Amino acid sequence: MIGRMTWTVPATARPGGSLTAPEAELLPDYLAWHRATFLHKCAGLTGEQLALRPLPVSSLSLLGLMRHLAKVERTWFRIRFAGQDVPPLHAVEGHKDADFDLLEPERAEQEYLALLEEQRLADLAVVGAGLDENLAAYGEEQSLRMTYLHVITEYARHNGHADLLREHTDGVTGG
Q1: pLDDT tens per residue, range 67-107
Q2: Could you tell me the residue ranges of all domains in the chain?
Q3: Which of 2, 7, 95 is nearest to 50 (CA)?
Q4: pTM more than 0.85
Q5: Which of 73, 121, 79 is closest to 99 using CA atoms?
Q6: Domain spanning 37-170 has what CATH number?
Q7: DSSP E strands: which ranges in the chain?
Q8: 143 strand-pairing partners
Q9: Which long-range contacts (CB under 8 A, 24 or more apart) does 83-86 make?
């Protein structure tokens, strides 16, 4: 009998980048590195492992972070900066942390693919925009520069969480 293969997050190569390029190149490259670093932290894990909450006082899990980062990509690049008329991700009436709390481990592959798609669409949403370009979203102006800085900060903070979660899940550290 041929058994069904268990899906695991694929390995991800992290891009290099210049340390001296102009800001318009550095910010997207730094974001790309942080995106790949998060996926690197998840590589090789199953949906069940991604959904583990190894810290008893926290609802954080790698799967929850994956869902949250997809929401961040959509919200900050597509909705807030580009003004696209798309619904927010993981919005559940009366549940502000649905991205972290309402997990379905069997949907891990779809959540992974959704994150990749939101990253792709976020990159498309800013094609041709300069860092100083401002768009009004939610009644306030926001520059592309600020958008990049905010999303890089989100990834940096959550990559630290991912380090801790991964170590508690299976002992893997570093990278």
Answers
A1: 999 999 999 999 999 989 999 899 888 888 889 989 999 99
A2: 37-170
A3: 7
A4: yes
A5: 73
A6: 1.20.120
A7: 134-137, 140-143
A8: 134
A9: 83/135, 83/136, 83/137, 84/125
